[in-house]
Amino acid sequence: MVVTGMWEYMQKFVQPVLLNAMGVRWMESKLEGEAQCAQLEQRGLVEFGFGGKVQNDILHLSMDYLDEKLCLSRSCLIAMTIMMGCDCAQKGIPGVGLVTALEIVSEFYLMEHDHPQVILDRFK
How far apart are CA 114 and CA 77, in angstroms? Predict the structure, then answer.
């Protein structure tokens, strides 16, 4: 790898040394960072994968709670994220925020194991 600037040098060489010296467990993702964090959380390898700032008022919603009480499966959440815009679908659907995405999913989510793309295809 050709390092072209100081920031790239810090990321490539200094950052790993500092993290190791502080005893921080870390990994370099070969894929999209959020996708890697989601996989680690799904496998039970991490508990707080997307940040870690101290919060006084933390609302913990488990996937079981979302599925049972709110009828939101993992596929629904992925479809909503794509509609609103995310790293893998940066533009999303113009004008679609949380409320609209929730309304769309509740209308077009038909089967328990629907793939997120199936939900989006029904909406089109």
Answer: 12
Cβ–Cβ under 8 Å, residues 109 and 119: yes
Determine contact, residues 119/112, Cβ cutoff 8 Å. no
For residues 33 and 74, what is the distance between their CA atoms, to the nearest angstrom? 18
Q: Which domain holds residue 67?
A: 63-123
DSSP track, 8-45: HHIIIIIHHHHHHHTT------SS-HHHHHHHHHHTTS
Q: Do both 29 and 74 map to the same domain? A: no
Q: How far apart are CA 80 and CA 100, in angstroms?
A: 9
38 with 74, same domain? no
Kindly report the pTM of this predicted structure: 0.53
Q: What does pLDDT average to in each consecutive run of 10 residues of the chain (124 residues)?
A: 71 82 82 76 69 58 85 87 83 88 86 79 81
Cα separation, 107 vs 55, in Å, equals: 34
